[in-house]
Amino acid sequence: MLLVFIIVGVIPLYLFTHILLNNYMEKAVSNRFNQMQNQIIMLSNQMLPTGYLTLADVPEIDVEVNRVAEIYQGRIVVVNNNLNIVEDTYGLYDDNRYLVSKEVIQSFNGNSSRVHDKENNYLILTQPITHTTEEQKVVVGAIVMNSSTRDMESIISGLEQRAVIFSLALAIFIVIFALYFSNRLTKPLTRVVNSIDRLTEGYMDEEVSIKGYYEIEKISDSFNKMINRMQKIESTRQEFVSNVSHELKTPITSIKVLADSLLMQEDTPVELYREFLVDITEEIERENKIINDLLSLVKLNKTAGDMNISSININELLEQILKRLRPIAKKQNIEMIYESFRPVMAEVDEVKISLAISNLIENAIKYNTPEGWVRVSLNADHKYFFIKVSDSGIGIPEDVQDLIFERFYRVDKARSRESGGTGLGLAITRSVVQMHRGAIRVYSIEGEGTTFNVRIPLNYIV
Ligand code: ADP
Does the reported pTM lie above 0.70? Predict the structure, then answer.
């Protein structure tokens, strides 16, 4: 974060100053050249009528040329069309000397030239002196003028110094600012990390309350939601384990009581042995059923990857289930009605769906009244198929209708036990429906009957 602040803050500032100063220098140089050019033109205009270029001695012009050279802290060399040096303000060359340079030759073609010697800090302007008659323009000489750029350099270096000081101050400010903010931003995150670490160590009791900026508060909210959910899962798990132990213990306790009473009596009649052994076998069967149901539930809860999906004719599936259950219904004189509104093919796990629907129909028979009825109906639209299992049975009190899908929950324990229930049937059914991305609802009026509605997509959604 610190790095980002510095990159975003200091580097643009540095580039900006650099470009600005460069531009300023260019502009100043070009201005200076223009001024020099104007001065030269003025000097040439004064020279032309006097014959100065033909080596006539004109002291006023010498003075004027020296004055201009001084103003620009430089040197002026005047050359005539024989390349003869007419005047040199430094006095190094006299009339006998010639000045031949690329720039001077060029100026006789009418071109002026501007050279900025950055190493030695001066500007060189070479400008033709032109005599304009009515017919033509004639170049009669050239002026080479140097001017020192030290004054401009010193302004620039002053500005540069100020920019460096300003950048440094800004960098220090940015570092302090970045340290403060990165600390502020990361502190709440560190607390979240600590809380997560504690959670990993197994302490699930702690919620975090972190105030900071919006995102951090959201993280802390989500974190608390996660902890709540984990707490709920943990308590359900513990409850499940204690329920399982209790349920598994009940038949074993009965078996122990039955066996002990047989052992305690001497000369027990064979009939009593037989009777008790029948009871013991029943308890063993019950234990077996609980274990089987538990195993199916655990298997279901594992992963959706275990789904064995194929295209199944649901009408046939329901008919098979009803055929298997009819004899049980018949024993209690319960009428079984099956209605199908249309043929339905759907992608389902046949074994699991069959288990889920059987549980519903078995319950409708188990919790029915004598001479009652069970109606199973099948319908579909373009997306889902619907199975409805209604009965004329004892119904479920409204306040526990949400609880019946919980594992081991039974409205009337004695009745459930009598009919061989384990309290796991509806939990299994709901799991299966959810694995198929479907939904299950119960409608019931106590004493009148119950209806379970199941809705499952025709095409399996992964
Ligand atoms: P069980 O093995 O006890 O039948 P389930 O999970 O299948 O367990 O059902 C849970 C409880 O819901 C049952 O014990 C019963 O009290 C109630 N229940 C389920 N289906 C019906 C129904 N069709 N009519 C009345 N009560 C029902």
Answer: no
